[in-house]
């Protein structure tokens, strides 16, 4: 276990160094949700039945979760890149903990996400979003957000280890952009036609977005929704547990075994 | 260590679906020696390295590396080996210095910073140490890769085609380092397509063909087996047969024709057959000569003689010929 901690920290350090060496990419990924908040908030917001400021308050937690779901994409891309570049193979020949590589990567991803949340929420405050449910509940919301990011990154790393190819992972990763569109991240799912509403409500993103809105006090839990959305905090925790329970062992196994 | 062999494999087999990459590889590398694993593309060299470095699991057979069982004691094996593969395996988003420090940490090197500076200096990377490795040339990346493998001195170092695709200067630098390591007692197993390289670096050569070791011996033994390649170019196609007759008589080997160039060649294992002897014999037979050559064996010749794959690997022989030509120039310089 101490070996895992030691090597995991080394791998975490590696990922953070990579980002420090390439600040442009980091800035770009952090600007994305901010520009989406401004576009969606003011362009869509003006066309929706909801008043603009109410929509922007609704949108801030939704975009946080949609961005966290992007962990699938970064996890996938980085795992495929390491495999493609041969770094994964070198690490496999080292006398180090097998689980440390994905763990370090996921941990680094969480650190970066946490850091990126600060400027995003500052812009959110500027456009009218507020914490309306007390600091403890807000802290819970952030904790849940990071847990969800952690789980998504693990799923992404497993998929990246499967595809192995940087470009394929990049393209497939781009498709994960669609996932929040089929959820209540950007719009209330209640207005969707029957089957689409079911799909959206069983999308983990919806449960987490609803939980964040509930904990921040931005919007009430919708009535008559599917179980994970009707009980958003429990639903989100369960979704994270399922994702981690499935993808942590798969990714660790896949990573340790390589191509053999 | 329990054995005097740093690498000892028996009947290693590996399949990838339909492809039988290794069909019973028996390899013995004595401690402190350099073993050159020589073979064409697809012979199983890389698969062998991947098995012996715990990246792949054998389907059958067993091996001990640095005194530990490859499968049951994989972790112990990993503590004693280092690998530099064909493709660079450093993190190109990190600088040279960051790479070495990271691998130093992961290797549990005490004081990785000092060792890092030492290696940067030794591999001529000090100036570029703070640039991301993505900006390095191919040769620099390979040197950094090798430096990363040496951050903790391994008992057994595996090098998979360490000089393929490099410029002569980088090639020479890497060979220099390999020789130095061997002199310090590290066992080195290197795969190569260049006979010249194996000749210079290796104490022993294992010739791998179709997933098996086809031949082993010192470079001198292997060369003696293969012999030199004599080639005669004549002025006219009509006299090609006469030239072939002389070659046949002198070498006792089956001559091979290249009719487009009016050339005929044969392999000679007779050390007394020198260029003057050959020219005199041809002249005495009245063959109108345009060119005569007697050159040391190339990998092409080795494979024609000692393996079943032989000359079917045309692309292989081309690259080898180019490589050998490069060597000669390099040595002359």
Question: Your description of this structure?
Answer:
The complex is a heterodimer of chains A (260) and B (333). Chain A is an all-alpha fold and 260 residues long. Chain A has one domain (2-257). Chain A is 77% helix and 0% strand. Chain A has twelve helices and no strands. Chain A has helices at 2-21, 23-47, 52-69, 71-84, 87-92, 100-126, 135-163, 166-175, 194-202, 204-216, 227-230, 232-257. The model of chain A has no long low-confidence stretch (mean pLDDT 91). Chain B is an alpha/beta fold. Helices cover 39% and strands 26% of the residues of chain B. Chain B has twelve helices and 14 strands. Classes of the chains: A mainly alpha (260), B alpha/beta (333).
Task: Name a few traits of the molecule.
heterodimer; A: 260 residues; mainly alpha; globular; B: 333 residues; alpha/beta; Rossmann fold; Alpha-Beta Plaits; 2 domains; 6-stranded mixed beta sheet; 4-stranded antiparallel beta sheet; 12 helices; elongated; disordered C terminus
Give me the count of strands of chain A: 0
Question: Segments of chain A where pLDDT lies below 50 for 5+ residues?
Answer: none
Our estimate of the beta-strand percent of chain A is under 5%
Q: Into which percent range does the helicity of residues of chain B fall?
A: 25-40%
Number of domains of chain B: 2
Q: If you consult CATH, what is the topology of the largest domain in chain B? A: Rossmann fold
Biggest interface in this structure? A-B, 22 and 30 residues
Number of helices of chain A: 12
Distance between the termini of chain A: 25 Å
């Amino acid at each position: 276990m101490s070996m895992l901690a030691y090597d995991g920290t080394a791998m975490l350090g590696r990922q953070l160094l990579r980002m420090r060496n390439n600040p442009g990419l980091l800035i770009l990924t952090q600007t994305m949700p901010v520009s989406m908040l401004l576009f969606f908030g003011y362009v869509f917001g003006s066309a929706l039945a909801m008043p603009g400021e109410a929509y922007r308050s609704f949108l801030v937690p939704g975009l946080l979760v949609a961005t966290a779901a992007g962990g699938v994409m970064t996890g996938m891309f980085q795992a495929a890149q390491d495999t493609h570049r041969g770094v994964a193979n070198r690490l496999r020949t080292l006398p180090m903990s097998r689980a440390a590589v994905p763990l370090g990567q996921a941990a680094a991803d969480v650190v970066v996400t946490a850091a990126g949340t600060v400027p995003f929420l500052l812009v959110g405050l500027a456009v009218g979003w507020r914490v309306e449910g007390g600091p403890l509940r807000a802290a819970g919301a952030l904790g849940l957000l990071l847990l969800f990011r952690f789980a998504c990154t693990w799923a992404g790393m497993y998929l990246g280890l499967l595809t192995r190819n940087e470009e394929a992972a990049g393209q497939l990763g781009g498709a994960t952009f669609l996932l929040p569109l089929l959820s209540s991240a950007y719009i209330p799912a209640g207005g969707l036609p029957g089957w689409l509403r079911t799909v959206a409500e069983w999308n983990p993103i919806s449960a987490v977005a609803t939980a964040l809105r509930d904990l921040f006090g931005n919007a009430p839990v919708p009535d008559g929704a599917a179980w994970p959305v009707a009980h958003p905090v429990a639903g989100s925790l369960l979704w994270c547990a399922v994702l981690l329970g499935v993808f942590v062992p798969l990714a660790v196994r896949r990573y340790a075994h390589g191509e053999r | 260590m329990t054995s005097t062999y740093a690498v000892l494999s028996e009947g290693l087999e590996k399949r990838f679906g339909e492809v039988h990459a290794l069909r019973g590889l028996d390899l013995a590398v004595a401690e402190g020696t350099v073993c050159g694993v020589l073979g064409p593309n697809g012979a199983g060299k890389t698969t062998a390295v991947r098995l012996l470095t715990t990246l792949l699991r054998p389907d059958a057979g067993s091996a001990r590396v640095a005194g530990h069982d490859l499968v049951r004691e994989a972790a112990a094996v990993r503590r004693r080996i280092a690998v530099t593969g064909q493709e660079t395996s450093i993190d190109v988003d990190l600088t040279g210095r960051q790479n070495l420090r990271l691998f130093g940490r992961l290797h549990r090197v005490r004081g990785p910073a000092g060792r890092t500076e030492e290696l940067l200096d030794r591999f001529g990377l000090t100036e570029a140490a703070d640039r991301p490795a993505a900006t390095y040339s191919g040769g620099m990346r390979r040197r950094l890769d090798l430096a990363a493998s040496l951050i903790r001195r391994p008992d057994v170092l595996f090098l998979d085609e360490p000089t393929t695709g490099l410029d002569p200067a980088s090639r020479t630098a890497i060979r220099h380092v390999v020789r130095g390591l061997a002199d310090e007692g590290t066992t080195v197993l290197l795969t190569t397509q260049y006979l010249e390289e194996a000749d210079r670096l290796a104490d022993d050569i294992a010739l791998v063909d179709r997933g098996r070791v086809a031949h082993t011996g010192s470079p001198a033994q292997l060369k003696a087996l293969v012999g030199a390649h004599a080639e005669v170019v004549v002025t006219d196609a009509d006299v090609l047969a006469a030239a072939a007759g002389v070659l046949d008589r002198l070498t006792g080997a089956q001559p091979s024709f290249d009719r487009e160039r009016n050339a005929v060649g044969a392999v000679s294992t007779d050390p007394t057959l020198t260029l003057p002897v050959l020219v005199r014999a041809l002249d005495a037979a009245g063959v109108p000569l345009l060119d005569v050559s007697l050159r040391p064996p190339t990998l092409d010749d080795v494979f024609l003689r000692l393996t079943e794959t032989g000359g079917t690997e045309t692309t292989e022989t081309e690259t080898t010929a180019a490589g050998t030509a490069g060597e000669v120039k390099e040595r002359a310089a």
